[in-house]
Here is the input.
Amino acid sequence: MTRGLVALVICTVMLVAVQITIISPLRIAGVVVMLVWLWPVSLALTGRTVVSVGAGFVTGLLFDTHSLTPFGLTGVVGVLLALAAAQLGREGVGDLDAAAWWVTPALASAAGFSAPLIFIILGFLTGHTTLWRGNLGVMMVVNAVAFFVLARPLTRLAQRVAESGGWSRT
Here is the structure.
């Protein structure tokens, strides 16, 4: 359990560091690809609900400390994505070994497509109307494509982290 928690913390912190230092400055069509939202989805697709929700919230909080987004909003989006993906992960729908090769990327792509919309809506509901910059459709498509491409390797990493922790599918 401790070994898995250490691995989870290290992977989460490193992913946030990569997001902030490498990914955020590299914009595709003016859009930042949000790996901090793909990480909890990847963990959730392994069927570890509690781990993915916790990682989604912590990852979002760590990212928000280094960005101009409202503190906690990225974490809430990560939690919502993890909860949605965990429903499928517990049933084994996104299982890398049992499902068709395209299922995990397709599920991650759906999360990448919906995440910017959820972020904008939650921001609007909390009174942050300035979050909508640029074209929301482009944000949704770019994140969906990036999540599709990155889903299998990141979910494979999430699977190894979850197995090292000995966490069961819950």
Q: What stands out?
A: The radius of gyration is 15 Å. The chain has one domain: 2-165.
